[in-house]
């Protein structure tokens, strides 16, 4: 496992949303209500990018088919078509003045 820095803490604020690509992982770093979350950046239903999704009250809603997921744990909350798996979530790691993620060297 290795630490991959994503952002300096000074740059984070509520309504912060930014996509990161680490090898084959596409991740979305979100800050809402003072809480930070790291989730996969594409909807598992039809692979639509979630950086254009609506985020409110702890829920991210995909813009394509309005699937809703809990940003804290990735649970699927609402499906408009066939059900899909939940979002993958990742634990944030803090090192010095940066927030990042631990990535498996084997990926």
Q: Can you describe this structure?
A:
The chain has 107 residues and is mostly beta strands. It has one domain: Rieske [2Fe-2S] iron-sulphur domain (Rieske Iron-sulfur Protein). Helix content is 0%, strand content 46%. The chain is globular and about 45 Å long. The model has no long low-confidence stretch (mean pLDDT 95). This is Rieske (2Fe-2S) protein. One of its GO terms (molecular function) is metal ion binding. Keywords: 2Fe-2S, Iron, Iron-sulfur, Metal-binding.
SSE diagram, text form:
Elements: E1 2-8, E2 16-22, E3 25-32, E4 35-40, E5 54-56, E6 59-61, E7 68-70, E8 76-78, E9 93-95, E10 98-103
Antiparallel strand pairs: 1-10, 2-3, 3-4, 5-6, 6-7, 7-8, 9-10
Concise summary:
With 107 residues, this protein is an all-beta fold. It is 0% helix and 46% strand. The chain has one domain (2-103): Rieske [2Fe-2S] iron-sulphur domain (Rieske Iron-sulfur Protein).
